Known about the structure:
The structure holds two protein chains of two kinds.
Chain A: H1 2-6, E1 18-30, E2 35-47, E3 51-55, H2 62-69, E4 77-82, E5 85-86, H3 92-102, E6 103-106, H4 118-126, H5 135-141, H6 157-169, E7 175-179, H7 187-204, E8 207-212, H8 215-218, E9 223-228, E10 231-237
Parallel strand pairs in A: 3-8, 3-9, 6-7, 7-8
Antiparallel strand pairs in A: 1-2, 1-4, 4-5, 9-10
Helix pairs in contact in A: 4-5, 4-6, 5-6, 6-7
Chain B: H1 7-18, H2 20-57, E1 63-71, H3 74-80, E2 84-90, E3 92-98, E4 106-113, E5 125-129, E6 139-143, H4 144-150, E7 157-162, E8 165-176, E9 196-202, H5 203-209, E10 215-223, H6 229-240, E11 249-250, H7 255-296, H8 298-307, H9 311-351, H10 363-390, H11 393-397, H12 408-413, H13 421-432, H14 434-472, E12 477-486, H15 488-494, E13 499-514, E14 517-526, E15 535-536, E16 542-543, E17 550-553, H16 554-559, E18 567-572, E19 579-588, E20 596-599, H17 600-607, E21 612-620, H18 625-633, E22 638-643, H19 644-698, H20 703-740, H21 753-775, H22 785-788
Parallel strand pairs in B: 4-9, 6-8, 14-20, 17-19
Antiparallel strand pairs in B: 1-10, 1-11, 2-10, 3-4, 3-7, 5-8, 6-9, 7-8, 12-21, 12-22, 13-14, 13-18, 13-21, 15-16, 17-20, 18-19
Helix pairs in contact in B: 1-9, 2-7, 2-9, 2-10, 2-19, 7-10, 7-14, 7-19, 7-20, 9-10, 13-20, 14-19, 14-20, 14-21, 19-20, 19-21, 20-21
Amino acid sequence: xxxxxxxxxxxxxxxxxxxxxxxxxxxxxxxxxxxxxxxxxxxxxxxxxxxxxxxxxxxxxxxxxxxxxxxxxxxxxxxxxxxxxxxxxxxxxxxxxxxxxxxxxxxxxxxxxxxxxxxxxxxxxxxxxxxxxxxxxxxxxxxxxxxxxxxxxxxxxxxxxxxxxxxxxxxxxxxxxxxxxxxxxxxxxxxxxxxxxxxxxxxxxxxxxxxxxxxxxxxxxxxxxxxxxxxxxxxxxxxxxxxxxxxxx
Amino acid sequence: xxxxxxxxxxxxxxxxxxxxxxxxxxxxxxxxxxxxxxxxxxxxxxxxxxxxxxxxxxxxxxxxxxxxxxxxxxxxxxxxxxxxxxxxxxxxxxxxxxxxxxxxxxxxxxxxxxxxxxxxxxxxxxxxxxxxxxxxxxxxxxxxxxxxxxxxxxxxxxxxxxxxxxxxxxxxxxxxxxxxxxxxxxxxxxxxxxxxxxxxxxxxxxxxxxxxxxxxxxxxxxxxxxxxxxxxxxxxxxxxxxxxxxxxxxxxxxxxxxxxxxxxxxxxxxxxxxxxxxxxxxxxxxxxxxxxxxxxxxxxxxxxxxxxxxxxxxxxxxxxxxxxxxxxxxxxxxxxxxxxxxxxxxxxxxxxxxxxxxxxxxxxxxxxxxxxxxxxxxxxxxxxxxxxxxxxxxxxxxxxxxxxxxxxxxxxxxxxxxxxxxxxxxxxxxxxxxxxxxxxxxxxxxxxxxxxxxxxxxxxxxxxxxxxxxxxxxxxxxxxxxxxxxxxxxxxxxxxxxxxxxxxxxxxxxxxxxxxxxxxxxxxxxxxxxxxxxxxxxxxxxxxxxxxxxxxxxxxxxxxxxxxxxxxxxxxxxxxxxxxxxxxxxxxxxxxxxxxxxxxxxxxxxxxxxxxxxxxxxxxxxxxxxxxxxxxxxxxxxxxxxxxxxxxxxxxxxxxxxxxxxxxxxxxxxxxxxxxxxxxxxxxxxxxxxxxxxxxxxxxxxxxxxxxxxxxxxxxxxxxxxxxxxxxxxxxxxxxxxxxxxxxxxxxxxxxxxxxxxxxxxxxxxxxxxxxxxxxxxxxxxxxxxxxxxx
Lengths: 249, 791
C-alpha cells in the first residue's frame, strides 16, 4: 500500500490538469525533547476543479498536509508546486501572496470577525482580492441573501459557517481548503454547509480539498485520500457517488 | 509532600511571569510615581534636618529688626520685652565691592561681630582662619561661596567702598551663617556667589566706619519657649520707633529662611500633585489587564469554584496578582526615589549654603509612597476581582458567548463615509469596549498632561524673565542709597559716564493692613513719567500709575484680600512713622515679589517730604558699562548697585543646566507613561484578538495589514488623547502654579504652543515605539493553531 501511495500514477482525467503537486513531503516537528514525524514522504497531485476528501484519524498527518498545501507551513523535505511553480522556496511574504490570491480557507470554528456583519466579513476579503465576486452575490450562493447585515453573534453555527464559505469563495480562489468544515455542526446544518461547498465547487470550479474524519462526507467527493501515520495509504476514485443531500452521519 | 507555596500561588507566580511585559509596564509607572514621592519627601526631610541642625547649632534668631541708629543701652530694654530670651545688637550695612577683573560691581553685606567672643545669636561658622582682631579694622571673615567663586584664600584682599572710601579688607577667616543659607544679593533673582558676599568685621571697625559709636542699627532676638512672636515684634517696634526702624519681622519673613520654606512648600506640592497621576494610570492599567486576564481564565475560575474555593479566595487571588504587579515597581521606586532624593539634596548644596547637607530619608516617605501605590493597585483590581468572584461556576466553565457587536453610534454618525473593513473593525472595537478605549485615552492623555503640566514651567520662567527684565523693570542698573537722599543725588548719578537716562525712586517699608490681615511690604514710589520702572495690568499691558491711592501687586492684594475701591491702612515703618488710610486704585501684575506702588509725589506728600529719593534706576550705554561701574563705585552713600545684564547672565548660567536635566527627566517619565499605556493596550488587544488576526493572516492578509487593525486602533486612541491631554495639561499647569506659588514667586500659567507640540511629540514617539515593539509579535501569531482551536 505504501508503495502504491508513493508511486501514485497520474490522475486519469488529465484533461483537467494538475493544479497542485506535492513530491516527497516530510515534516518533522522538533519539540526539543522528542521529534515527531508528521509526514513521512507524501506524493500527491491535486487536479483542477476536483473535490478531494482527505480522511484519517487524529495524528495521521492530514492537517499537516493541508497546512503545507495551503501555504501555512513548510515541509521539512520535499517540494510543493502550484501551477508548476515551487511554493516551498517562497518567502513568508510569497506564501502570504499565494494565500491571498489563490487560496480560500474554511475553518472548523468559522473564525469570523465578530465585529463585522456577514456582508462585511466577506467584503474583508473581496477588498484585497483581484477579481472578487460581490459579497452580496457570494452570500446568495450559500443561501444567506437574507442575512447580509447580521453580526456573527446573531447567526446560527451553520449560518456562520456558510458565511465563512462565502468569504472563502468570494475571491474566486483556485483552491479551497476546508478543515473539518462540519466538525462543529450537527448533521442537518452540516449538510447545508456541504451543499454550499458542492455548489460553489461546481459553479466556480474551485478545486476543493476537505479534511474530515467523517467517512460519510467522503461520498460526495471525486477522490478520497486516506492518510495514516504520515503516509497516503489509499486513494479511492469515488466520482461523486452521492449528492450532499443524500449523505447522513 | 507539603509544599511551602500553595498551588494557587504557584499559578499566580506563573501568571505573573507570563504577563511580565505588562507587569513591567505597570511597574515602571508605579516606580516613577513612588520615586517622585520618595524623592520629594526625602528632599523635604533632608532640608528640614539640615536647616534645623544648622539653626540650632548656630543659634538662628527668631525676630529681626533694624534702625537707623539706636543707642546700645536700648539692648537692656529689649531684653526686658516679655518673651525675649537673648538679644544681639549689631551693625549691618550693604556696601559695594570693587573686584579686579569684574566690570560690574559686587555687593557685600557687612555685619559686625561682638568684641568679645562669638555672637550670641546668628553665630558664624568658621571653616578656616580666625575671627578678626578688634584692633585691626580691616580684617574680615568672608562668606565661603564668594571666597571660592573668586579663588581667594586667607590673606587675600578685597576692596570695599565703605562710606565712599575705598578700603582693602583682608580675609582672615572663611565662614558662613544660618542667616545666609540662601544668599540673595540686592535685586538678585538667584544666589550669585560672585556678586554677593557677607563680610563679618569687628564691631569696633564698623562703629568707626559708619559713625555708630555706642550704637547699633540691627538687632535680633531669640524667644523664650512659648513666647508670642507678635508681642515681641510689637515691643521691638515700640522701642525702636524713635530710632528709625523699618519694622521688626519674624523668621518666616527672613529672606534666606523664607526661600528654604518656599522650596519645601514646592516639594510638598510636587509630592501631592504628580505621584497621584502615575498611580491613577497604574490603577487603570491594572484594571484593564485583570479584566482581560479574567476573561481568559474564565474556565479556570469556574473550575476553582467547582473545587470549592470561595468568593473571597478567588477575589483575593486577583488582588494579590495586582499587588504582585506593583510590588517590583514599589521597590524600584524606593531605590530610585532614594537616589533621586540624594541627587536633589546634593543639587541643593549649590543654592543652599548648609555647612553639612544632611541627607535623611524618613521612613514615612516609604510608607506613604509604597502604601499609596498598593492602594492604587487594590482599587485597580477590585472591579475585576469582584466579577471573577461572582462568576457562577457552571457559567464560567462554558466558553464565553461570542461578543455582540453593533454598528455603533460612531459609525451611524459617519454612515455616508465608506470605511474599509479593517477600519470598521477598529471603530467597532472602540465603540464596543468604550471603557477600555477610554482607559487608553485617559492614560495617554495623562502622559501628555504630565508633560504639559511640567514643561510649562520653562515657559513660565521665560515669561517671568521677559515681564521682569523687559517690561516692569526695564532699567540697566538699580542704584540704592544707604539713606534717602536729596533729589540732587539723582542729578549726580545722571552725570556719571555712560548714563543715558535716570528714573528716581523712593522705596519705603510699610505695614499694610486690611481688616484682620496685615503684611510688611515695600511701598515703591514710582515716577509716572518714567519708562524704566513701569506697571502692567492683568493683561500684561502697560498702565499708568494712578495719580492717587495705591496700586497693589496682585499677590499682595490676595494676601490682604483687598480689591480696587477698598481702603487700607498704611503704617509707615520709618521716619515719623505716620499711619494713614489710602484707597486701592489699581491691581498690577508683578512677576516677582509683592510690592505696593504709589505715585512718587503722592508718596512724598504722605511722608511729609519733598524731592527725597532712596535710589535711582538708570539706562546705561552698554559700551560704557565699565566706566559707569568705576564711577559709581567711587561715590559715597551708595549701598548697592545691581546691573540687570549681570543678573540675567548669571540666571541663565545657573538655570540652563538644571533646565536640560529636568527636561530630560520629564520627557523620560512622560514618555514612559505613554509607552506603558500603549504597550498594555496593544498586548491586551493582541491577546484578545490574536485568533482573529491570525485568521486574517491565513486568509492572505499581510503582517502590515493585520498590524494596522491592532495598531490603527491605538493610533486613533492616541490621536483622541492628545487634545484631551493638552486640556488636562493646562488644568495641571494651573494646579501646579497655584500650589507652588509662594510669597516669593507667583508662577504665571503661560503655555507656549511649542510646549504642547513638544509634549505631543514625546507622547507620539513613545507610543510608536511601544506599538512597534508589540508589532514584532504579530510575526509570531500561530496561523496553524487558529485552524483548529476554538477560543
